[in-house]
Amino acid sequence: MSEVRGKVCVVTGAGSGIGRALALELARRGARAVAISDIKLETAEATAELIGAGTEIHTAALDVSDREAFAAYASEVAGTFGQVHQIYNNAGVADNDPVTEFDYDRYERILNVNLWGVIYGTKEFLPHLIASGDGHVINVSSLNGIMAQQGLSAYCASKFAVRGFTESVAFDLKGEGLPVRTTVVHPGGIKTSIADSAMEWARSAGLPVTPEQEARKAFYNEKLLKMDPARAARIVIDGVESNNPRVLVGNDAKMLDALVRLMPRRWPMAFGLLERRFEKELEARGIQPKSKQPVAESRPVHH
């Protein structure tokens, strides 16, 4: 059992959503210390304030796509607390467009955060996890690490890669007899700010955001991104404490995982039926589902 009580735990992307909920749940379960990082220091500090007294806290601004920054962060956290037991590589970003319109800079941005951020976090903290004698690497993939979707080639590539990386690392650690376990997490539709953040990034990049895209984002937040992050965090940490190598979060994740496994050739047709049902709801709200969907648009990205 990878019990949380008394452990030193690290959570990236902990300024909101699942990351914030994970930090709060780790503290609630008696973690000795929680290291909270986010791209913005103020959001990390806001999470720390919610935890309150009783748990040692370390907060930092961290760009997970910066290898040198991650190395320095790992050393700082380990130096502060003396040891580290668990790393939750949670930070992630989303972006979508057809491959024909998705430029290399956007691919690099997604892969640098979603994949390299996970690799850096795993590699930089691994010596400390091994030294603890009871380490655990938790890498957050997505439902889109199980199934692909139109317009999400970069996101799906990153999340499929997180799954493969984590499962391969598990074989390595077991083969070398090292005291570190791994868990890959596949969340379904969770109420996080990832869709809002994608739209904010589009605006900051000077890309147009139309009323239709705003309406679509609101629709997906209401209809698809439904699970409370606190509940998602409980499911994740229950899985970690049970040493589960793979955690599916939400009935949608479980259903679509089963669909992909049972119908490897026909699941796109079944999924297409679900998408058409949502398209009808979009049309009923005056949103054109078949229109061109630029970067700012929020599709049902599952993490």
Radius of gyration: 19 Å
Which CATH C-level class is it? Alpha Beta
Shape, per Cα inertia axes:
globular
Count, helices: 10
**Distance between the ends:** 26 Å
In helices, the fraction of residues equals 40-55%
What is the fold named in CATH at topology level? Rossmann fold
Largest sheet data: 7 strands, parallel
Q: What name goes with the CATH superfamily?
A: NAD(P)-binding Rossmann-like Domain
Number of strand elements: 7
The low-confidence parts are 290-303
Structural class, please? alpha/beta
What order do the strands of the largest sheet run in, or round the barrel if closed? 3-2-1-4-5-6-7
Strand percent estimate: 5-15%
Q: Any guess at the CATH architecture?
A: 3-Layer(aba) Sandwich
Order of helices and strands: EHEHEHEHEHEHHHEHH
Number of discrete domains: 1
Give the integer mean of the pLDDT values: 85
